[in-house]
Every structure is written in C-alpha cells, then in structure tokens.
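Researcher: Here's a chain I'd like modeled. Treat it as a single chain, no partners, no ligands.
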Amino acid sequence: MLPSLSTLQPRQLLAQVLNFALILSTAFMLWKGLSVATDSPSPIVVVLSGSMEPAFQRGDILLLWNRGMDTKIGEIVVYNVRGKDIPIVHRVVRRFGGGGKPLKLLTKGDNNLADDTELYARGQEYLERSKDVIGSVVGYVPFVGYVTILLSEHPWLKTVMLGLMGVMVVLQRE
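Model: Modeled as a single isolated chain. Structure tokens:
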C-alpha cells in the first residue's frame, strides 16, 4: 500500500523530492533542446479552435520547424499577434517581398471566410516572416492536445493533477 509521509525517513523523503525535481528539470531541458533544434520558441503547439478544419481539429498537437525562412503559399504557419500571447495556426494565402526584401505574409484559416487582417495588431496588414511567425507545421498528432485544453479551461484540474503527481513521486519507493 501507499506509505504515509510520516513513515518515510528524512533521507528517503529528500531522495523523492530530488527525484521529482530531476523529472521536472529533465522535461524543461528537453523542451529547451527541442526549441534550439527547431529554432522556434514554441516547437509544439495545440490547436485551440476550429478555424483550420478539416486540416486540423481542435486538440491536435502540431510540430513546428522554423529553420527555413522561405515560406510558400499554401504552407501552414503558426504566428503570434503582436501584443497577444496566443499562437494562431493558419495557412499562407499571399506573400510579398522575399529575396533581398523582408518576406511578408497574409494568412487565413481554412474554415474562415476572410483573411486574418482583422486578427493582426492595429495597423498591421501582413505578418513579417522573421518577426511574427513561430514556425511552419511539419507534423501533427491528432486529439492528444485535449489534455492541455482541459487544463487551461479548468484551472482547478491543473492544481489537482500536479498535486497528485507530486504525492505519487514522494510516496513512491524504489
């Protein structure tokens, strides 16, 4: 059965806490390593809306790559709107510039009637590839991101889940 905290010796308790810290730091290092490899601050994102249906459904996890700066029409990109922190996944419908000039993109959701100019920051008519785009979609895993959506829509669930994980690590014996 599960032992209580009072039955653990101080050395065992410290070992379990350090084990939990090791798990968290390993996850952080893997995330940062993936960020460096893909040249993207957020190499994995979750689709939060239905604007890209039928290509991607709400809850799909997208894998991003940001090494090539020559984005083509039809390519699906993830971008941040200046002043907002929510990534948007949409398809490139027009491109301006390129070559010696900065590449500028116009995007649109597959399930939307109009392009994204209404979503961009005030006064912004296009995305600058080097500043606004987080990365291009190179793969996806369907529906796995629903866990993230549930945790963000129900903050209490995140607290319960983290608490249970912490208790399991502390109470686990080797």
